[in-house]
Amino acid sequence: MNNALDLRQLLNIIRQHILILMIMTILGAAAGYSVARFMITPTYSVATSMLVNRSTDNNTQTAGNLYDQQADVQVINTYKNLVISSNVMSEVSEKLKRPRTSSETKYNLSVEKLKNMVTVSNEQSSQVFSINVTGSDPKEIPLIANTVADTFKSKIGGFMKINNVSIIDFAKQPDKPIGPNKKIFTLLGAVISIFMTSLFLLIKEISDTAVKSSDEAGQILDMTNLGEIGYIKPVNHLKLLSKKTEEQNLKQLRSRTSRWGNN
Q1: Which regions of the chain carry the CATH code 3.30.70.1130?
Q2: Which of the residues 22, 158, 190, 225 could staple to 29 if both were Cys, CB 3.0 to 4.6 A apart?
Q3: Residue 130: closest CA among 75, 160, 169
Q4: Burial of 3 (0-12, 13-18, 19+ CB in 10 A)
């Protein structure tokens, strides 16, 4: 067979193996969904919102308020680094190891582990920033987020000599995980399956050296096809009939021969 496949041949291969391609696509999608559903640990995320806003009295001028707001927005970048500092995280780690009440769960988390779980984000030109915590335990991460916020609020006065941070929203236990995305895994499984199956079929077709048609033989030998000789498969019952006819003819011949001999 010619190793160069044209579009017509490719479409013909797909048409011949469409059922296999459909089955493998379904199996690949099922495999991708199963991996996301049963093999990958779900990931949850929560956030505690904090506001940077220094307290002012009623006599403060508007220009001063605007200046303070701009200063508060600019200082948030500094606060981001302070939130995940070892100073704050070490105290958070100690608080998680020693819960205030017996009903609270004890969590033994290192400073490095906490740093990997906690991130800080904010919108541009906003005085609000969020302490985000991501993890696999939906009960653990809201406690971490709220403990980080409380600890940072209590220590900011010592860091900056000013207490202008307040907590807006406390983190709550999440209802649904943020990952893995089952739809993406299902689609990825289907795409990989159909790609690998198609690649296998193409390699099989290209490596097949058998001549499948007279046209292909003419192309290989560079000769004109003048016609085809058909092949008729022998039929068993016709063989039996011809054999019986031969036997009958032989008997008749023997009978005639014996009569001639007697005469």
Answers
A1: 44-169
A2: 190
A3: 169
A4: exposed
d(CA 83, CA 97): 19
Identify the DSSP state of 107: -
Instruction: Report the DSSP beta bridge partners of residue 120.
Output: 131
Residue 5: CB partners within 8 Å, gap ≥ 6? Answer: 13, 202, 205, 206
SS3 assignment, position 49: strand
Buried b (16+ CB within 10 A) or exposed e, 196-210: ebbeebeeebeeeee
36-93 tens-digit pLDDT: 999 999 999 999 999 987 655 444 444 456 566 677 777 888 899 999 999 999 999 9
Q: Does the pLDDT value for residue 168 go beyond 60?
A: yes
Residues 6+ apart with CB under 8 A from 4: none
Contact assessment for residue 134 and residue 121, using Cβ atoms and an 8 Å cutoff = no
Do the beta carbons of residue 158 and residue 171 sit within 8 Å?
Answer: no
Cβ neighbours for 106, distance < 8 A, ≥ 6 positions apart? 96, 97, 98, 99
Cα 105 to Cα 131: distance, rounded to the nearest angstrom: 21
Asked if 27 and 193 touch (Cβ cutoff 8 Å), the reply is: yes
Q: How far is CA 173 from the centre of its chain?
A: 26
CATH class of 44-169: alpha beta
